[in-house]
Amino acid sequence: MAVFRSSNHISVQIINDEIGHTLAAASDMDAEIRSECEGKAKTEVAKLVGALAATRGKTAGVTQVVFDRGGYAYHGRVQALADAAREGGLTF
Asked: Which residue of 9, 44, 85, 91 is surrounded by the most CB atoms within 10 Å?
């Protein structure tokens, strides 16, 4: 589970490292949650992305992941995304 965070957006991919394929992905720019993200704080948006990633991951048959924070500090948006993914059923 690899996280990318920019100053305005956050996205996550669940990747199978053995074959190098993305199994599931979620972003604050996805049509499913884009309308929900409007007007919310960045941390709240990260929670929505984490929950969406967990849902899509479970749909793809993924229940356990390794969390790659991409060098970003584990606080704020990155932590909110991880916590929401855990609550959504993914095991780190």
From this structure: 85
